[in-house]
Amino acid sequence: MRRNTTSALAALIGVAGAALMVLAPAASAQTSYQVGGCASGTVDAGAHAIGSTFSFVLGCPFEPGSTVTITVNGTTVGTKTADASGAVTVNVTVVSQTQLSINDPVSAPGQCGPNTVVATGAANGATGTNTAGFTVLCPAGVVTPSPRSGVAFTGANVLRWGAIAMVLVAVGAFLIIADRRRARARD
């Protein structure tokens, strides 16, 4: 009987440990990101956590040496000069959930979720525009306001933890029932 109880307890601890490992956030050691090459159109600059720094290249159609205006999430953050290949490199640091640092030290508004950088400048006698999109990854429980929301989120999100608790209770009940059936079969 003692052996069955010990193995049931070990199984319960194993299931609980596995459940917690599934919920643990992924480790992230990457602090910089480079989108290679010179691209026109839209560049996907990836997803980045708070505190990370990355860069990407916008251009090719810009006239070499021309002034290119950089806009982040609708806010102009300055200008850059197109290089010999007609491109500009934009450096971004995700400072917080609501703040980005562009080309160090210009602050720009940021947000959890999608963000957009637009470069506009002279391109073959006309105005050329290149766009880069990237996602800011925020910790669980951070609510990104939507334009349609009218009431603030003031509660806790306990659905995931409630589901885990229910699974652990079900596994524990199963182990107890199985242990009792084995004990009756032996008697």
Give the neighbour order of strands across the main sheet: 1-3-6-7-8
* Principal-axis shape: rod-shaped
Q: Report helical residue fraction.
A: 25-40%
CATH architecture of the largest domain: Sandwich
Number of helices: 2
> For the terminal residues, how far apart are their CA atoms?
12 Å
**What fraction of residues sit in β-strands?**
35-45%
Q: What is the CATH C level class of the largest domain, in words?
A: Mainly Beta
Mean residue pLDDT: 78
Query: Would you identify the regions where 5 or more consecutive residues have pLDDT less than 50?
Result: 24-39
CATH fold node name of the largest domain: Immunoglobulin-like
Assign the structural class, choosing from mainly alpha, mainly beta, alpha/beta, alpha+beta, or little secondary structure: alpha+beta
CATH superfamily of the largest domain: Immunoglobulins
- The number of distinct β-strands equals 10
